[in-house]
Amino acid sequence: MAKWLDDAVFYEIYPQSFKDTNSDGIGDFRGIGQKLDYIKELGCNAIWMNPCFESPFGDAGYDVSDYYKTAPRYGTNDELKELIGEVHDRGMHILLDLVPGHTSMAHKWFQESMKAERNAYTDRYVWTDNIWETPEGPGALRGISDRDGSCLVSFFSHQPALNYGYYRQEKPWQQAMDAPGPRGTIAEVKKIMRFWLTMGCDGFRVDMAHSLVKGDEDGKGTVKLWQEIRAFLDEEFPEAVMVSEWGEPDKALEGGFHMDFLLHFGPSHYNDLFRCEEPYFSSRGKGDISEFVRKYQENYEKTAGKGMICIPSGNHDMDRLARSIHGDELKVAFAFLLSMPGAPFIYYGDEIGMRYVEGLTSVEGGYNRTGSRSPMQWDDSVNAGFSLAGEEKLYIPLDPAADRPTVERQLRASDSLYHEVKELIAFRQEHPALKNRGGIEFVYAEKNTYPFVYVRNAGDERILVILNSSDKPASFACEYSLSEALRTFGGEIMVRDKRVMVPAGFYGFYRV
Ligand code: NOJ
Ligand code: CA
């Protein structure tokens, strides 16, 4: 089932910021369609597109007001269907973003749910039974309706939480997972999925997948809920692919997701790589990979054979990769990202080292995330080729730096990050050991030390990967004979008495 996942390499598109074709300053479906060849040429064969549904955009579209209708600013449902067709014509796949945890307050379900008289939507959201009682959680909406009660929110204060029930119920208003309210919500989620899968999308990235059932600290109820959804998909859409924003692969894959992300939150130590005071992939060489590896190993063992752990280059919620690491550091970082098991995810623009734009005023609930969501920099024409709109109309201001990277310039320079990423993807795809389902054994990942060394394997093929992002040479003891160098960057290793000396700012792939 979904065989294509075996060698899927994803590209995340933030539709607002990718390519605008009608000069309103906001990216659109047509724009994405125009750039599919670019994505394919880079070597990505799958897309995750952030929410593109009707919304008041208080959280950039993660506040849906109609799940069955695309936001007019991106195009019509038919245009999305066309885009999906264009993706498929190129042998590529596309996941839409499903936001099951909450809606916008503008959603008609919520409007009904606020009414004092009981109706079909009274139990669609999590409400207490009197205004003076607030539910435990990220916050509550209070004093906004005739209905007597406070409504739990799931993220921002304008995102009321949909009701999937409480795993452990302690209050009379906390409903069981199998009560009619939660059952109604689940039926609706299935209907939404059915709608877009029937239109042709290949599956979903699921927003806050970990958080649906309440009173469920260890995730047992939420896992059960997703298992039900998986069973529904197996029956009706066995090819549908699901990737979760969960950050705990053992739980997510137990719930039937094909893949889960390591994220900037949760226990994965993902931030140790690129987003902390001393990132491991900084040339300062003061980072630590050992905790990340310990946790990864733990997850890897728990999920063996069940699905994939995905390590994204970044996403629309995190600082840009290029905020803390630069130049050749990015090349070594991509050698890591593109040689780990699980499907790689490249956040748009990371392949050219797009920077975090400092000092921006928040746009659509972006806050500090706004700087990672600026328009794609295609070329040196007006607005970097993103849009022909007046500068003041651009969704988010462009990176103002005169030397901001662009696709066009990087295409021309053979030593650019773009070419490095493209070659690394092609290299991965030529070697089963390096692909999504190949295995991994860690060889050297010591505390506060470089290099970082692992072996990837599939069938007879075994490839040793050496990464030294630090600006000092490093060494490790190696039992393998490194017969054939398949690909190196930043110099050559030397082997003496089973000790491998590794140059600074280096990566290498060796057949063993
Ligand atoms: C995670 C999304 O990635 C983020 O952008 C959004 O703000 C929250 N979930 C709430 O939906
Ligand atoms: Ca537009």
Task: Describe this structure as you would to a colleague.
With 512 residues, the protein is an alpha/beta fold. It has helices at residues 29-34, 36-42, 77-89, 108-113, 180-199, 220-236, 249-254, 271-274, 290-303, 327-337, 407-412, 417-430; strands spanning 10-13, 46-49, 53-54, 66-70, 93-98, 140-141, 151-152, 203-206, 241-244, 259-261, 308-310, 345-347, 439-444, 452-458, 461-468, 474-477, 484-489, 494-496, 499-502, 506-511. Strands 11-10-9-8-5-2-1-12 form an 8-stranded parallel beta sheet. A 5-stranded antiparallel beta sheet has the order 13-14-15-20-17, with helices on one face. Helix 10 (327-337) runs parallel beside helix 12. The mean pLDDT is 98. The structure holds 1-deoxynojirimycin (NOJ) and calcium ion. The site of calcium ion (CA) has 6 residues, from loops.
Number of helices: 12
Give the end-to-end Cα distance, rounded to a whole number of Å: 32 Å
What is the arithmetic mean of pLDDT? 98
Q: Order of strands side by side in the largest beta sheet?
A: 11-10-9-8-5-2-1-12
Q: How would you classify the helix and strand content by structural class? A: alpha/beta
* Regions with little confidence, pLDDT below 50 for 5+ residues: none
| Mass-distribution shape | globular
In what range is the share of β-strand residues? 15-25%
Count of beta strands: 20
Bound molecules: 1-deoxynojirimycin, calcium ion
SSE blueprint and pairings:
Elements: E1 10-13, H1 29-34, H2 36-42, E2 46-49, E3 53-54, E4 66-70, H3 77-89, E5 93-98, H4 108-113, E6 140-141, E7 151-152, H5 180-199, E8 203-206, H6 220-236, E9 241-244, H7 249-254, E10 259-261, H8 271-274, H9 290-303, E11 308-310, H10 327-337, E12 345-347, H11 407-412, H12 417-430, E13 439-444, E14 452-458, E15 461-468, E16 474-477, E17 484-489, E18 494-496, E19 499-502, E20 506-511
Parallel strand pairs: 1-2, 1-12, 2-5, 5-8, 8-9, 9-10, 10-11
Antiparallel strand pairs: 3-4, 6-7, 13-14, 14-15, 15-20, 16-19, 17-20, 18-19
The structure holds 1-deoxynojirimycin and calcium ion (CA).
